[in-house]
Amino acid sequence: MKKAFAVLMITLMLAVSAVPAAAKTGPGTRDAVGMSLIGLNTLDLYGNTVDDTVFATHTMTVMNFWATWCGPCIGEMPDFLTLHNHYQATSENDVQLCGVLMYEYSNEISEAIQMTEENGWTWVHMLKNAQLYAVAEALVGDGSVPIPQTIIVDRSGTIRAHKRARFLNYEEMYEYVSSWYEILAAEEDQQPVVPGDANGDGNVDVADALLAIRYSMGLFQLSENALSACDIDHDGSVVVSDALMILRRAMGIIDSF
User: Fold this and answer.
1) Closest by CA position to 150, among listed 169, 131, 173
2) What is the pLDDT of residues 59-112, one digit of tens each?
3) Is it true that the peptide bond before 148 is cis, omega within 30 degrees of 0?
4) Per-residue model confidence (pLDDT) at position 221
5) 31-190 has the same fold as 1-22+194-257
């Protein structure tokens, strides 16, 4: 019975996670700051699913919109590679880099695979979809999408900064990224741990239960704060029973832990 209930809850969480959140835009918008990427569901270059849980494992995500035919995009890729290598080698800096491929034809995907493999651009490159296109289009607001452009996304999936055009050099890129990391890291340090709040957005909802169940299945890692928040029974580990407790709280079945 318990096993059947767990399977039912997992199915429910996976179904809810697939429902996209509406992008928050308004008249006169000239960037995507404040928009949410919760509900993101797309593919990477190799056809693997990329969803909004990609943000929960890092304090900050740097997302670069690019295309294979875009000269300025390709021109700044070596600097993004240096940035990626820096944060990969600096474990205390909880920053990840992701690319968003803006494409029109399927052959551009194979071109992107060749370019990324030949040049060592090994971070995740996701394919544009309607939600990501809305983010890119918000920079101008007239239906056009200038690239390259770069956004800063916090752990909750909220866009915090939006830059148009390429970085002039690595120094400018690193200053921009590191300054935002300091801001977001300071915010996380000041934020109290809320039991059940896996993504650090201050709420306990189905998305938090989904993160907990995926962690218990070994699909990705949670931060120390998230692990503390999700260890509902305080036994030092996060397992399916913890995720089910979070789900019950999110659904209003229980009022507190």
Assistant:
1) 173
2) 999 999 999 999 999 999 999 999 999 999 987 679 999 999 999 999 999 999
3) yes
4) 67
5) no
Contact of 183 with 175, CB cutoff 8 Å: no
CB 245 within 8 Å of CB 232: yes
Please state the domain extents for the chain: 1-22+194-257, 31-190
* Integer angstrom CA distances of residue 47 from 125, 135, 157, 239: 11, 22, 22, 29
Q: Read off the tokens for 175.
A: 């200053």
Backbone angles phi, psi at 42, to 5 degrees: -145, -165
The CATH classification number of 31-190 equals: 3.40.30.10
pLDDT of residue 16: 42
Predicted structure pTM score? 0.70
**Which of 99, 9, 55, 62 lies closest to 173 in space, CA to CA?**
62
User: pLDDT of 206-221, one tens digit each?
Assistant: 888 988 888 898 876 6
In a 10 Å sphere around its CB, with 0-12 CB exposed, 13-18 middle and 19+ buried, how is residue 70 labelled? middle
HSE-CB for 132 with a 13 A CA cutoff: 27
Angle of CA points 145, 147, 153, to nearest 5°: 90
Q: Which CATH number fits domain 1-22+194-257: 1.10.1330.10, 1.10.1060.10, 3.30.200.20, 3.40.50.1950?
A: 1.10.1330.10
